[in-house]
Fold this protein.
Amino acid sequence: MVVGEVAVETDVIVIGGGPGGYAAAIRLGQLGHSVVLVEKAKLGGVCLNRGCIPSKALIHAAGEFHKLQSLAKLGIRLPAGEAQFDLQGWQDWKGSVVGQLTKGVSQLCQANGVTVVYGEAAFMAGNRVGVETGGDFEVYKFGQAIIATGSRPLIPGFVEVDGTHVLDSTDVLKLEEVPASLAIIGGGYIGMELGMALAKLGSKITIVEAAERILPQVAPHLAAEVVKQAKKLGITVKTATKVQAVEVVDQKVEMTVFSEADGEERIHADKALVTIGRIPNTASIGLEQAQVATDLRGYIPVDEHCRTNQPHIYAIGDVTPGPALAHRATKQGIIAAEAISGLPSAVDSPLVPYVIFTEPQVAGVGLTRAEAEAQGYQVKAASFPYRANGRALATLEPDGFAEVIVDADSHLLLGMHVVGADASNLIGEGALALELAARVEDVALTMHPHPTLSEIWVEAAAHALGHAIHVVSKK
């Protein structure tokens, strides 16, 4: 094909088939638009194929394996001999889960009239995108476009990821054997999630974090619960420590680190994992040809409708400033699709819940106490421990607590946070409560089923009001 001779016309082109991109494409199809969705690898993007789903599958499997040590407390006696974890068997299971989900996304796109094109896309002009599709080149002329190209692992210049000894977060999920030892650069949520999972499978884990503590993005008292469990798992955590060099020597990794407390040290491990963050995929998609502006870090600024500086071009997900979370990308994708369709849809709420799948899980939505006080609120905060919840004790999960942050004057809920078993599912109630501008009384007076972990919200809310039943309230 001669470039520019023939262009396929479409109402909207969506570049990137991850959680944001495919949600946008499906919503556009529902609203009657012709849609071309371009994905360079597999539908579902990093999240479904190489990130969220595979990593949570590993975390779940590791957790189930680790629980075997506690079954005797429940009266369960296993046959003599040590249980074994087959990582290759897990890979097969993970593949079946990912395959089922990607097939489902493909079917949904087809059912909603979305044309899926596999290839690498780049803007040629403000109304044209070129797509390389395995030796061929196709041009699409569009009325409007949505950029949803996601992000990739950030690798510092002094580290060379080879996929064998030095890994990124994608490589580690391809392992067929559990490494005897693993050094992790970065104590954020990815490093802690994967490190704790592999520790449960028998790997000796060392985590090096440049900040003063692990999980620096969450409140210190929440992260402290994770630190306790990390120690129980035998994980070595080095905070306020910078990595100076990473070398592969005799098929092993040698890492040179430095801290003010301990000076220069060398860490030896079978493998190293780099998890210091992610960067947006915006450098090679021809944004300059479409005159789409980016900030100094490569992110694309957008308005409340997800429009870029070019009114007919939208951007969503990890390429935009803000937390790199799949559910945020999905929400933005739907908003962009509806804005394109002339519907009154906008990002009208700052509430973005987060979940960290460590041991125990951490989740939250809204303000922390420190954030609320910094904004000038008079704050009432109260928590309720898992150890006082019947369900938690009956299932051997007594660690953690739920916390509510309340405006002392209006009793409006400002934040809800939980660290403990199943926090990932419990935080949905918090997100809904804050979105509905609930007062703490609304939660305290709502009957929750017993015996469930959800009762911790009732007790935390009642505690803030001074009349909790299962914990002594302050007078």
